[in-house]
Prior knowledge:
Distance between the termini: 28 Å
CATH topology: Peptide Deformylase
Strand content: 25-35%
Shape: globular
CATH superfamily: Peptide deformylase
Mean pLDDT: 97
Number of domains: 1
Helix content: 25-40%
Bound molecules: nickel (II) ion
Radius of gyration: 16 Å
Low-confidence stretches: none
CATH class: Alpha Beta
Strand order of the largest sheet: 1-2-3-6-7
Order of helices and strands: HEEEEEEEHH
Structural class: alpha+beta
Amino acid sequence: MAKREILVLPDARLRAIAEPIEKVDAEVKKLAKDMLDTMYDAPGIGLAGPQIGEMKRIVVMDLAKEGEKPDPIVMINPEILKYSEETITSEEGCLSIPEIYYDVERPAEVTVKYTDLDGNEVEREAKDRLAICIQHELDHLDGVLYIDYLSRLKRDRVLKKFQKAEKLAKKAS
Ligand code: NI
């Protein structure tokens, strides 16, 4: 198992746009495996390439609940084709913004298109937790974080907290 370091706010790579993956080769398969290992170890339910400094359009997820069989999902070059008008509000967190959780409102259902690890084109409809997770992870590929949907006051509070932590860490090293 290869666990990779998860980048934390305010790392600039979290704000960059990831590049499409041209071919699902052994390197991409290894990356997906590393991402799943890293996500399970964290533990988390989703992880995007840029969160480990890999600026590629790949996300991994697993929404199986405790005690259920693992259900890993790998999406390469994912794209949301359709959003529902209906929205839901749910609490979100992010491995790159540890120990912070806020309610976010998003479309309740999406249709997503992606390439899977076998190189097949897949179209999938998702709702509820999976739909939210897909939207959250895909945002990472465009440098968008869930805190961007909060009020400016709340977002600034989170940013300041992590900027301060980074300064302290630099001083200590
Ligand atoms: Ni996240």
